[in-house]
Amino acid sequence: MNERDETPSPKRTPGGEQDDTPTTRLRRELPQEVPSAAAEEPGAAPREEKDKQTGRQRLAQGLWPPRFTRAQLIVALLLFGLGFGLAIQVASNNDDSALRGARQEDLVRILDELDDRTQRLEEEKQGLEDQRTELENSSDQAEEARKQTVEKERQLGILAGTVAAQGPGITLTINDTKGTVEADMLLDAIQELRAAGAEAIQVNGVRVVASTYLTDSDEGISVDGNKITQPFRFKVIGNPQDLEPALNIPGGVVQTLEKEQATVTVARGDEIVVDALRAAKRPDYARSSSQ
Questions:
Q1: For 40, what's the count of Cα atoms within 13 Å in the CB-facing half-sphere?
Q2: Under DSSP, is residue 18 helix (H, G, I), strand (E, B) or coil?
Q3: Which of 3, 118, 148, 257 could disulfide-link 262, Cβ–Cβ 3.0 to 4.6 Å?
Q4: What per-residue string of b and e applies to 195-210 under the rule 16 or more CB within 10 Å gives b?
Q5: Beta bridge partners of residue 172, listed in sequence order
Q6: What is the tens place of the pLDDT at every residue in 223-273?
Q7: Tell me, what's the pLDDT at 37?
Q8: Considering only CA atoms, which of 261, 92, 86 is closest in space to residue 177?
Q9: How far apart are the C-alpha atoms of 193 and 201, rounded to whole Å?
Q10: What is the DSSP letter of 285?
Q11: β-sheet bridge partners, residue 262
């Protein structure tokens, strides 16, 4: 059986002629309606409803369980800080509202009290700074005075023979095999060395000081009552370039001793040690004149 043509056939008139009215021609020209998907598949759910149901499921899956990124956490903390600052600002504004409602006399009194308090604090600050400066200056002065005292004591100790000393200088050695050297010759040597700038001298273990004296006896030469024997050895601290020429000048100590058939040697040294000490003696009559 042939498929039936759904195109409506033109109406015919009773005489067998085709109906060619405008309505009939319009029906022939219009296309036939295409059956919808719902008509082809009866009972199937609409596609839009499926899409909506799938979108809701996706939204639920995206919201739970919650997932936070690092950027979201930072934004949350910034918002929290901003809110906290706004809360503090509001609280301070509430505190300032009490001043806004105060009378003019009260505001003037509050300002005067603040000015007085500020001035007192400034005065206390200036006083504390002055005390600190005074303490620093006094501490520095005391420390400097202490250093000067220690240095002065050391210098006086070297001159008085109560402190050991070391430094550049010379060693003078006199060998008297004939026994012709006398105390005055050794004293001349000490005087020449002092005049040349000797700062510390010792002779055979006896420290030479301002009150030192030399004597002759049948037993030999004595220095401050201490007998010394040859070779006579002088340890002298001072500038070697001044000490040695002072002994070797024409007609000086070296030539005088050599005339007495004594052997004299002078040796320079960078570290001459003068370690013979004298006990500090308290003067019997002299007193310090400084108050």
A1: 4
A2: strand
A3: 257
A4: ebebbbbbbbebbbbe
A5: 234, 266
A6: 999 999 989 999 999 999 999 999 999 888 999 999 989 999 999 999 999
A7: 44
A8: 261
A9: 9
A10: S
A11: none
The one-character DSSP state at 7 is: S
Strand stretches in the chain, DSSP E: 165-175, 200-203, 206-208, 214-217, 220-223, 226-228, 232-237, 263-274
CA–CA gap between residue 116 and residue 226 (Å, rounded): 81
- Interatomic CA distance for residues 196 and 246, integer angstroms: 6
What is the rounded distance in angstroms from the CA atom of residue 19 to the CA atom of residue 10? 6
> What is the pLDDT at residue 224?
92
- pLDDT by residue (tens digit) across 47-80? 555 455 566 666 666 666 666 676 767 777 777 7
Question: Residue 3 corresponds to which tokens in the numbers above?
Answer: 């498929």
pTM for this one?
0.52
d(CA 197, CA 140): 34
Fold classification of 164-274 is Alpha-Beta Plaits (3.30.70)
Question: How far is the C-alpha of 276 from the C-alpha of 255, rounded, in Å?
Answer: 28
Q: At what angle do helices 240-247 and 183-195 cross, to 10 degrees?
A: 140
